[in-house]
Each structure stands twice: as C-alpha cells, then as structure tokens.
Amino acid sequence: MPSPFVTRVKLALAFKGLSFEDVEEDLRSKSELLLVSNPVHKKVPVLIHNGKPICESLVILEYIDEAFSGTGPSLLPADPHHRAVARFWAAYIHEQVVAQFVQSIRGKTEEDKAEGIKQTFAAMETLEGALRDCSKGEGLFFGGGSVGLVDVLLGSLLSWLKAAEVISGTKYFDPVKTPLLAAWMERFSELAKAALPEVERVLEFSNMLAMAAAAAAAAASEN
Fold this sequence. Notes:
This protein has 223 residues and is mainly alpha-helical. Helix content is 62%, strand content 4%. It has two domains: 4-67, Glutaredoxin (3-Layer(aba) Sandwich); 80-199, Up-down Bundle (Glutathione S-transferase Yfyf (Class Pi), Chain A, domain 2), CATH 1.20.1050.
C-alpha cells in the first residue's frame, strides 16, 4: 500500500543516507510481527531498530533524527524557536492538510469532495507563506537550505496529489497562485524520487479503493 505515512519514514531514512529493509504489510491480513510491534493501533508504519519497535510516523521521524544525530542532514533545526515552528507546520500538515485532502477524494458526496478541494487549496496558499518564512525568502525548502521535517511531511503527499491531478485535473501546486510551492515540488520530487511511490501505483490503489467502495454501496442497497 503506498501509504503517505510510510513514505514519510522512507523519505527520512533516505535523506539521512540510512539503509533499511522495507517489509510490505497486507492490512487486510495483518502479520503477527505488526500486531506484536504495534499492539495499540495495529497500523503501519513501524520502525524496528535494534530489535525495538517505534510506532506512529511523527514519533518515528523524530526518533530517526535523534538516534542518528550526526548522520546526514538534521530534520529539525538546532534553534529551539525554529524547531518549534517546524513542529507547528508539521502538525498543521498532519492534522489538517491530510484530512482535507482525504475529504477531497473520499467525501461521501460531491459537495463534500468539493469542500475538501477548496480547503486543500486554501491550505496550500497558507503553506506558500510558511515556505517563504521558513526558507528565509529563498523558497528552497521548509528546512531552509536543506530538507527538513516539514518538507518530509508535505513531500510524502506528492504522489497522491499528482494522482489526484491525473484523476480530476485538480492542480494543487499552481505556479501562479503558489509559485514557491510549485518550484519546491519540482525540486523535492527530483531529490526524493527514489523514495516516493510511483504515481501509477497510487492510481491503481485508488481504483481498487473506489471499486471496493462501489461494491460495498451496492451490497448495502440490496439489503
């Protein structure tokens, strides 16, 4: 499954230059390893380091940054205020942008989907300002001159956002309305292409979800 939450971890490991074993998980038939490693939420991703599991993507990202301090670029800045700002925008993407984007593609009605698209566009305009401030006006990365925590979180959504563009024609990174983000997307996509899921795979997964939802709706209407 091309989960953006799993992609976050893969991106962080890749930017740190760390090798890892990627174990695919079938969430319809969860393995004993997953259930033992994450008994509370029973979800991916789970990072197992030195035989010990770390769960929840945001927790894993900070763990990677701390456990491998000095290896590769730091995901969080050293300055306490800058670190707090990065965590704020990371939470904004994690809690709001993801939910709005999910609504845009999985809303129960067309009105729900339209509202999700509207809110996602508004969030992108907000992030345009955040990129301008965090990158000190250079517009390179949210982490300044190098990739940071916020880049990883937004970057993990890129394949899904590009898939949505193929499906609906919705262009979330508008070079006119959000020029810094549009340039950031191109820059990040090239830098992280080895760790990002292929758009074709996301499209296949989206089609599978759509067919499953249609089948469930048909079955419900017959009962």
